[in-house]
Amino acid sequence: MGTSEDLQYPRQLLTYMDGFLVSKTMFTACELGVFDLLLESTAPMTSAAIAEHLNASPDGVERLLCACVGLKLLELEMNNAEAVYRNTELSAIYLTKSSPRSMLPMMMYSSRTIYKYWDYLTDAVREGTSQHEKAFGISATDIFEALYRSKEEMLKFMHLMNSVWTICGRDVITAFDLSSFPKVCDLGGCSGALAKQCILANPNSSVTIYDLPKVAQTAKKHFVPPEESRIHFDEGDFFEDPIPQADLYILARIIHDWKEDKCLKLLSKINTLCKPGGGVLLVEALLNEDKSGPLTSQLYSLNMLVQTEGKERTASEYSKLLTAAGFRDIQIRTTGKIYDAILGLK
Ligand code: SAM
Ligand code: ASE
Q1: In which band, very low, low, confident or very high, does the pLDDT at 140 lie, cut at 50, 70 and 90?
Q2: What per-residue confidence (pLDDT) applies to 1?
Q3: Closest CA to 117 of 137, 138, 132, 139
């Protein structure tokens, strides 16, 4: 920071400027199926062969592959004076459709949806509000009506929500010993990815996923196998309708969607339902107390501005909300990954 090299040549600023070129290069290779094709291929492939299989321009594909080599998403090797490409280990594990650790749904949602919203980040900062109207022509005032503007968009969102828990789920679920809470309710549990992690880590617990009717029905149909007898579903609006009785309420990425008053309304409703000794587990991307980082949480808070009415918060901001709703003994566990855990007891 502030060394003479930085001031004579603004390397860092140029890297930031090109940040979206990097993202879009990776997204394009994902969307075209470059990594999937190379995974299926028994041998490394030439650029011409890749272009033919993808039904894309040989020149365009060659430039894309070249940039992917620069990003270390692909490796280049000479085979009898012919350049051939193969996946790096990282791409094979995280950027292919069939991989159990696939991050492709997050890439797709970033590339198509978040990218469009961020075209209006300046307006969002000026106006202090979400940008559904400008980005997608939707005049909805309800956040999830806007985010679920079509069946496809709702499914894309559910896949986005689902995939991060394959890399961060175990850490947040095992941050605290939850074995004393046999009956768990995952409020806004979406596709059930965290519910699955919860029953894996706590063999004696069962989880009810509570979500909006169309989300719960889609999760039941496409995400949670019917033989999973320890995961149940309940549907409704958690602000307006009755919610299930439970020993522990999990709220993962729920509080960060909403303004203070709605957060307090929801948390107080949960507190009323909780028996003494019951608890609430918030799972969120925590900001440092002085908001100096982590960068991911800082950037996600800007994304909450363009896409929702919420924001990312510090541990003491969450503690304050929980205390105001009647919870006590609030404990914080950071994981060093994207998402952290906050436990409050009644
Ligand atoms: N907890 C999941 C996770 O972290 O992967 C999903 C979080 S997502 C940001 C918010 C979830 O809350 C969505 O599944 C959404 O459908 C649900 N939701 C939003 N408003 C709701 C409401 N009024 N009642 C019930 N569920 C709601
Ligand atoms: C929400 C979480 C997300 C609402 C909208 C969202 C995410 C993307 N869009 O509760 C996941 C976190 N990623 C980012 C970039 O914020």
Answers
A1: confident
A2: 55
A3: 132
- Atom of ligand 1 at shortest distance to CA of 215? 16
Which residues are marked as active site? 256
For residue 104, what pLDDT is reported? 98
Ligand 2 pocket test, pick from 148, 160, 164, 251 with the greatest ligand atom count within 8 Å of Cβ, gives 160
> Which domains are present in the chain?
4-94 (1.10.10.10), 164-345 (3.40.50.150)
Q: Which of 211, 238, 266, 301 to mutate to test the pocket of ligand 1 (most atoms within 8 A of CB)?
A: 211
Q: For ligand 2, what atom is nearest to the CA of residue 147?
A: 5
CA 326/CA 185 separation, integer angstroms: 19
Q: What is the pLDDT of residues 34-86, one digit of tens each?
A: 999 999 998 999 999 999 999 999 999 999 999 999 999 999 999 999 999 99
